[in-house]
Amino acid sequence: MNENRTFPEQEGRRRVVIENITPEIDAGRFAIKRVGGERVVVEADIFTDGHDSLAAVLKFRAAENAEWAESPMEFLVNDRWRGEFAVTKLGNYFYTIEAWVDQFKSWQINLQKKIEAGQNNISIELQIGAKWIEAAARRATARDAENLLAWAKEFGAVESVTGSPIEKRALDKDLTDMTCHYLGRQFSTNYEKELRVIVDPELARFCAWYEMFPRSFGGFKGCEEQLPRIAKMGFDVLYLPPIHPIGKLFRKGKNNNVKCEPGEPGSPWAIGSSEGGHKAIHPELGTLADFRNLIARAKEFKIEIALDIAFQCAPDHPYIREHPEWFRKRPDGSIQYAENPPKKYQDIVPFDLECDDWKNLWLELKSIFEFWIGHGVKIFRVDNPHTKTFAFWEWCIGELKAKNPELIFLAEAFTRPKSMYRLAKLGFTQSYNYFPWRNSKDELENYFAELTQSPVAEFFRPNLWPNTPDILTQFLQTDGRAAFAIRLILAATLGASYGIYSPAFELCENQPRGPGEEEYLNSEKYEIKRWNLSSPDSLENLIARVNQIRRENPALQSNRNLKFHRT
Amino acid sequence: MNENRTFPEQEGRRRVVIENITPEIDAGRFAIKRVGGERVVVEADIFTDGHDSLAAVLKFRAAENAEWAESPMEFLVNDRWRGEFAVTKLGNYFYTIEAWVDQFKSWQINLQKKIEAGQNNISIELQIGAKWIEAAARRATARDAENLLAWAKEFGAVESVTGSPIEKRALDKDLTDMTCHYLGRQFSTNYEKELRVIVDPELARFCAWYEMFPRSFGGFKGCEEQLPRIAKMGFDVLYLPPIHPIGKLFRKGKNNNVKCEPGEPGSPWAIGSSEGGHKAIHPELGTLADFRNLIARAKEFKIEIALDIAFQCAPDHPYIREHPEWFRKRPDGSIQYAENPPKKYQDIVPFDLECDDWKNLWLELKSIFEFWIGHGVKIFRVDNPHTKTFAFWEWCIGELKAKNPELIFLAEAFTRPKSMYRLAKLGFTQSYNYFPWRNSKDELENYFAELTQSPVAEFFRPNLWPNTPDILTQFLQTDGRAAFAIRLILAATLGASYGIYSPAFELCENQPRGPGEEEYLNSEKYEIKRWNLSSPDSLENLIARVNQIRRENPALQSNRNLKFHRT
User: Fold this and answer.
1) Distance CA B492, CA B551 (A)
2) A261-270, A546-555, B401-410, B555-564: which has the minimum mean pLDDT?
3) Nearest by CB to A391, which of B12, B45, B395?
4) Pair A21, A191: CB distance under 8 Å
5) Which of A364, A425, A370 has the alpha carbon at shortest distance from A401?
6) Is the ipTM value over 0.85, yes or no?
7) Which one of A207, A212, A233, A475 is least enclosed by Cβ atoms within 10 Å?
8) Omega cis (within 30) before A342
9) CA-wise closest residue to B237 among B408, B396, B405
10) Residue B412 catalytic?
11) Residues A229 and A486: beta-carbon distance below 8 Å
């Protein structure tokens, strides 16, 4: 007969099909996410032709070249199988499935059916079983082989089912285990992909963030003084807006005024001046040593410090002089500031991630993270990641987490849904989301059903913020203290992670810059505030109580525990 | 700066993401199906970072190494894009997507936004546009370059928007087309997969099958006599159960009796005897020449002959003597007959597709199709494909259709849903399905919603049979002629392809072998029937009318036109 050019040499006798694995994100292109101690429950459609019985194992390992560990998969219904494993180590796990025709179990089931159908003479059927047992014995240790051959001999001698406990004997567990073990996995099918799990630290799953402008408290030392109060309220993360020198060129004044009066501090997101850039500290906040002290002191209160990483420059940032090739020049030689017409950010210049020197730019941006990691920072809130090349984030976060799997990256991805989810797939640990604008029961149920009951739940961890320095929602503007209490409780109970921009939040600050706007009047972004923390209206006690309830209720500590149904 | 081992050299400046393409079956592992003249509508999420405008094209070709043709994709909403192309040629088409940042359109939109925002001095913005036009001119033909440079000069000279028609000029269609054309697709993203379309003949989409045992009509010549009647009823396909010599060993008698009286004909599915096997014709049906005559005569009536391919052997099939290695032997040396306890098929022996000589067995099985293709058969109804290795079908159908894209394979896949769908993915053109047992409104709506409104519709074409020689449903047993009329109309209108086992069907034959059974009493499988075609109860006229309505209503001619909603 003719040779055939596309003969499936390897696959021809692999009779088992494995398909429709869950979880599997974008055909395995992206990882799912877990934290240490969580389980990964894997399901798949596993089936073969005809009526044979199958066996399947879930294979997993904590490194790409490690030995596979295995856990058995169980048949559910309608050719669906399920298995699970626990992840314990931070970093990457991998999983896949192996399945094969279980010849001995197929024989057992066939024998049972024949006995049930009333077939009396089963000597040939028992001899078939004996042949499988003998095949197993040929691969067994001497001792096991002896046992197996005794079984084979017994089955070979039985003539009929009458008065014989042979059915029970043929299903004996030791016999089954031993025979299946030595028969092995002939012609087994290995699922064609290795799927990945990113295992993050516990805080990635369950955390409460407190955002605070250090300059309104006199810098890092002032922040230290706030630690007991923040800890008492029950927060795990203290997040600081950018702590770097602020540009002086085109600095914004109070209420985003394009004119800045002398002495006005400017926006912390307009990063860089002659005093330094993304690796420097604003002199009015303290020194690098003060910052390290704050981190150390926070740890005593079980609080992690999160830094804001905003990849953009004030016009007087040192990069602009040192690396003009990293910025987009206009025909008049000037450098293009950030804008999204009609909005203009004259105090901010974006990087040109498409520039010819993009590789060095990417390496430099990554080195900013590395600098702060070197000084003890483990959590980063990333400003507007959706305005930078997607491929940059996959590479940058991938590289950083390969060395530091304990890192957490929160994406300020207030953007369209596809981009928001893509950033989570690319590696961001948590993400801002549409919670601030979901108010009605329907809106909340439908949105949280999407976040918790769709495949999104496997890679996207929402962090719920009722307010931010940029967002004073209409809802918060209308009903005073009650509105803040409502949004606090929703944020703290609809998701396992939430945060508030404060003390504006606990002090129920609700004056917008103008009607229909979401900007704060006299926003802390452009001025130093002196907050009256002892206000009788403060939500401090309510917040403390809510965080206590969260700590006491495991159901509130994982988004996977929270079930919503679309209406 | 340090080199980095995993730097995304190629992808770093490819800023556009293409994901969530539909249709795409199992991450591109399998093809979708169309017939010549149909359209393929492709959608995808396509987006980039920031606010730039995109362009995207759907690329398609009718052979793996052909030049790509392109059709533009249009933006829908929420980062979703759509494009389409028509398939005309039988065989395989391939499609994929290319998308890129459209720098010139981004500039146009940015300019518009600035003008709308009231910015008056736009000279710098116009100079930026002039730079893009100049870049295009550098790659243009001399004549186009001249035109482009004139545009660039014009924009470079404008100072402000006041009183100038510049916005309209900047959006000029010729300018846009020419500039975009010459700027090209810098850093474009090509979707990582080529997706496949199998283009089948028209009959794969829309057909009516008539199944008939030739022996009950005196063989092929008797079939010829029936052609005018079958054509008048409006059928496209005349499907014959196996036409090969029938085994004499263990031949079944009337009503599946294990004892066969002399002269009883046996089941046509018990294939092979000393008179020949799968490539021979039962002498009582006629000669190979008679068979070819039937095909030719049927063509005159626009009827295709479909053959039944059942990969199994009677115990006296020549293969068993010539290739004992292709069958499973029992410890007593006998060959195992087919069974699914308590059912026994003593007159049938299955092939062992796992045997050591499996490759030669596969080639021989494929050669059976090739033999009949050589004699003019283009449509095959495949018996019980789910009891043969899945990989066999993908290889066999793939090889056959590569040479003969006009072939149609109907899978008799009365099996579990996952296997049924898998066989369709692997290459079967159409499939039997659960229609016979879906009776209530809810059952029908939910099932046909699954078949027509889920991704299943892209690869699975149901062929609806109210009865078969194996299936006389409970529904048909109860209400006489009315029940048959109901199931006929449902079959003919719920799907674009349907078939009836006849004349049992049009004669409303409804006697089961026993209560609760679906087997016919005195089934034609085991005896030669003499049908009274002139019965006054015959549904012949109704069938003719129904088929006429189908031919007159395009809405009934494609499953994609039929819309059902789950209840």
Assistant:
1) 11
2) B555-564
3) B12
4) yes
5) A370
6) yes
7) A475
8) yes
9) B408
10) yes
11) no
